[in-house]
TrEMBL record:
The keyword DNA-binding applies. InterPro entries: DDE_dom, IS_Transposase, RNaseH-like_sf, RNaseH_sf, Transpos_IS6. One of its GO terms (molecular function) is DNA binding. Residues 46-185 form the DDE domain. One of its GO terms (biological process) is transposition. Keywords: DNA recombination, DNA-binding, Transposition. It comes from the Bacteria. Involved in the transposition of the insertion sequence. Pfam families: DDE_Tnp_IS240. This is DDE domain-containing protein.
Length: 202
């Protein structure tokens, strides 16, 4: 659904807002709401599934790094212009910062992702820890995160790409947060989806 579609839907309900205003609101508020969702989400598991999917920005493919636990709960996400060791290392660093250290991470055959996790294990060794993250490169075990990608792709595909990297980041932050709400990761005692969103935006 485009911002123009939302403009028409709101107008039918007596709310007159230009689609450009909706776009600016998403750019300004979606990242803030997503950051608050990371703070408030329920505890996640220590067995992770990590993979990337593709998002088109200014006619070029970029990489949406995503991780879920073995129950399918969203851990974190990050849009990157590159798919390399540096990007993977940044992603694992921020995911660990918001979720704690994993016991195990399942990835595909990507050498960049493996190198990123090896960097995390080197950090553990330097800190004098006696355990390391177990890394499994088994494609069929990653079905959970690959299935989770489908929800994101279903929403981004009709958009036919983004005009700027910052717009893509903001919009994806909003989509991922809505996905977390649907999964019940932010639910209190019987909170509706609207109540969960209102708590984040308040």
């Amino acid at each position: 659904m485009s911002y123009r579609d939302l403009e028409e839907i709101l107008a039918e309900r007596g709310v007159h807002i230009d689609h450009a205003t909706l776009n600016r609101w998403v750019g300004k508020y979606a990242p803030l709401i997503a950051a608050e969702a990371q703070k408030r989400k329920s505890a996640t598991g220590r067995s992770w599934r990590m993979d990337e999917t593709y998002v088109k920005v200014k006619g070029r493919w970029t990489y949406l790094y995503r991780a879920v636990d073995k129950e399918g709960n969203t851990l974190d996400f990050m849009l990157s212009e590159r798919r390399d060791e540096a990007a993977a290392t940044v992603f694992f660093t921020r995911t660990i910062r918001s979720n704690g250290w994993p016991d195990k991470v399942v990835i595909d055959k990507s050498g960049a992702n493996l190198a990123g996790l090896e960097n995390m294990n080197i950090l553990l060794i330097l800190r004098g820890w006696f355990w390391l993250i177990e890394v499994l490169q088994v494609k069929y075990l990653n079905n959970i995160v690959e299935q989770d990608h489908r929800f994101i792709k279903k929403l981004t595909r009709p958009m036919q790409g983004f005009k700027s990297f910052s717009a893509a980041q903001a919009t994806l932050a909003g989509i991922e947060t809505a996905h977390m709400i649907r999964k019940g990761q932010l639910a209190g005692n019987g909170d509706t989806a609207y109540q969960q969103f209102a708590a984040l935006a308040g």
